[in-house]
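Q: I'm writing a short methods note and want an example of a predicted protein-small molecule complex. Could you take the sequence and the SMILES for flavin mononucleotide and return the bound structure as tokens? Please keep the output block clean; save any remarks for afterwards.
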Amino acid sequence: MKISIGPKPFIQPNPVLVIGSYDQRGVPNMMAVAWGGICCSVPPCVTISPAKRTHTYANIITTQAFTVNIPSTSFVKEADYVGIYSGKKENKFEALGLTPVRSEAVNAPYVAEFPFILECKVIRSFEIGEYTQQFIGEIVDIKAEEEILGEDGFPDIMKVQPFVYDEVGRNYYVVGDLLAKAFSVGKKK
Ligand SMILES: Cc1cc2nc3c(=O)[nH]c(=O)nc-3n(C[C@H](O)[C@H](O)[C@H](O)COP(=O)(O)O)c2cc1C
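A: Understood, no commentary inside the block.
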């Protein structure tokens, strides 16, 4: 029997994405985002939804660009930190000792220490409710550390070691074992 629990922003799991952006003065910032994900394949696009009160929102409105930095489990503290404190009050790169690198592809910084980066230019933007803006960024390029690439030349999830977020318990979880081959296990016999 199903029990109604009412409308909530629940999906299990959410990705943990760290958004890189520049402010008007060119100061780099990072923010944690769990409301986001891939939203189109051709062209490849990603959606993120920062609240309007965030420094990141104001930055992206100005620059129309952002990076999506995917942290490995070893950076869980840093990812959480950038989801607690605001770039309005401090330079989070300096506070954490992380290295901002200017993207060659878009007007945004990425995190040198993180293994997997999407460089995005804003192609659409929507207001959602009173407080949130959804940005859709076209992925102009991806930068990945050589060490996390698989034999096909693309990021290998077991090497990236991303982690996921559960809004219900407000916890982070590691990505587990391979379950089955997609677009295969469900094939008609
Ligand atoms: C795991 C996690 C996920 C988060 N996801 C979002 C999100 O999707 N949208 C949002 O507006 N805030 C989200 N936050 C809160 C922001 O990251 C937080 O308000 C941050 O201080 C904003 O930084 P900024 O002001 O420097 O841009 C999240 C925080 C955490 C810890």
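A: Remarks, as requested: Residues 147 and 159 are 8 Å apart (CA to CA). The chain has a mean pLDDT of 97.
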